[in-house]
Amino acid sequence: MNTERDKRFQNRAKLRAKEREKPKPNTPQTKKSGGDFQDKLHAYFALHAHALFSSLGRMLKTPFTSTMTVMVLAIAIALASGFYVLLANVEQLTDNLEGSNQISLFLKQQVDDADGRKLADKIQQNPQVKSVKLLTKENSLAEFREFSGFGDAIKALDDNPLPTVLEVLPKNSLDSGEDLQKLVDELKQFSEVDVAQLDMQWVRKLQSIIELARSSMWLLSCILSIAVLFIMGNTIRLELEGRREEVLISKLVGATHSFIQRPYLYTGFWFGFFAGTVAWVMVTTMMLFLRKPIENLSMLYQKTYSVVFLGFFESFALLFFSALLGVVGAWIVLRYQLRQMKLE
User: Fold this and answer.
1) Distance from C-alpha of 258 to C-alpha of 147, rounded to nearest angstrom
2) Over the stretch 264-276, which tens digit does the pLDDT of each residue have?
3) Contact at 8 Å (CB) between 78 and 282?
4) How does strand 103-107 pair with strand 165-170?
């Protein structure tokens, strides 16, 4: 009886299979291929979504270990991004101090204020000059009286011994010391100019410090990025070793390499993303802590200075590259470990 029943079931299954293979009369072939593509696309996104959230769930099951890994990664990322923000603040500070790099033109004593204004208009037409400020003899004497402390002695003078002064502010004065020196030499050629003064040594030192800080920032970023890759790779290696039997069984039942790697790649993504978020909080907190002292210091030099934070683009780049480093670190270790397990 059981044999006859099994035969009937098999015959029915064969008939149903033949009916499925027959094309439907009113269904065009293009619609079938389109339906297959949609099904494959839906399955593709479903697999990725499952791997994305299942990897997050495994992280949450070990909160202490995951938190320790995220904090180590975040400190490394925060060092690089914090150095970047500090350098941005230093560059803004040099922009605010750009006026201190101005060229002071001391005109000859016989040149009056009217001739000084004509010379200022002529210098203003120079494409390398940003602005020209005229200090008349009376203004120079008033400033000297206020800051020198010899006010009573100056009152005893019959004539004003101070000359007319032109304060010339070059364009991009922190970019090239050679261009500055050429501009100074050019301004000395005017017959009204007696002395042209510029502290070139201070400018060159400042240029060298900024260039050194910029190069150090990129070097530090590269070193810390490599450190993030190693930390992320070691984390994925330990997780892969802990699930070695599961990976082997998945391969035996026909799982592809992409299917095996996918959850570990998303684990690297989550670690990198959370580390970047924590690093952003660290850098922002650091700048908030330093904001008041920096503003107080700028007020002593009569400068309006606002602290630079990570903007929208910088914040997005921080999260993107943090997640990318996590994925790349996981991928490198997966390629090596799967070869060791004879799965590649």
Assistant:
1) 75
2) 999 999 999 999 9
3) yes
4) antiparallel
Looking at the chain, the domain(s) classified CATH 3.30.70.3040 span 103-197
Long-range contacts for 177-182 (Cβ within 8 Å, ≥24 apart)? 177/203, 177/204, 177/207, 179/128, 180/101, 180/103
Distance CA 200, CA 193 (A): 19
pTM, rounded to two decimals:
0.65
pLDDT surpasses 70 at 29? no
Cβ-contact 165, 112 below 8 angstroms: no
Backbone angles phi, psi at 240, to 5 degrees: -65, -40
Task: Report yes or no: 144 and 162 within 8 Å, Cβ to Cβ.
Answer: yes
Q: What is the DSSP code string of 91-142? A: HHHHHHGGGGGPEEEEE-TT--HHHHHHHHHHHHTSTTEEEEEEE-HHHHHH
- 180: its two tokens: 């500055």
User: Is 170 in a helix, a strand, or coil?
Assistant: strand
Each residue of 89-106: pLDDT tens digit?
Answer: 877 766 655 545 678 888
Joined tokens for residue 337: 């470990």
User: Is CATH 3.50.50.60 correct for 103-197?
Assistant: no
- Cα separation, 81 vs 287, in Å, equals 12
